[in-house]
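During data preparation, a discrete fold description was generated, and the record follows.
___
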Amino acid sequence: MHPGFRGAQPAGRQPGPVSGTTARARRSDRAGGEKLSSVAAIEIETVNTYPGLDTHPSVEAVRFLKQFAAPDTGTAKVSFGTEGGLFKQRLDVPVVVCGPGSIEQAHKPDEFIEISQMDAGEAFLHGLLGSLKA
């Protein structure tokens, strides 16, 4: 069996070896598994890495996009990976990751998005597209 898992690196931290917490958990799981079977093993292989993204809220691209968002929309760092860090690293362009909904419900079991959040996302896109036509 070859289960997989993902880990996101915080911005500014270079992707590298498995974190200390994961390494300790791996040793603990291996010890427990070896009690059940002499052939138990856990191996972790890094098959892909990408840099974290750290776009400051004062960047012009953030200010530009916020004008189309609902007034109470904030900015936040998130604990999931996107291609945004690669775009910033390789193209040296400002990158903003945005979307409707709350990160509190996203990317976890039973994730959901409220219809009102979809409506706000639609209004955001209409505003953005309207500004690009001008």
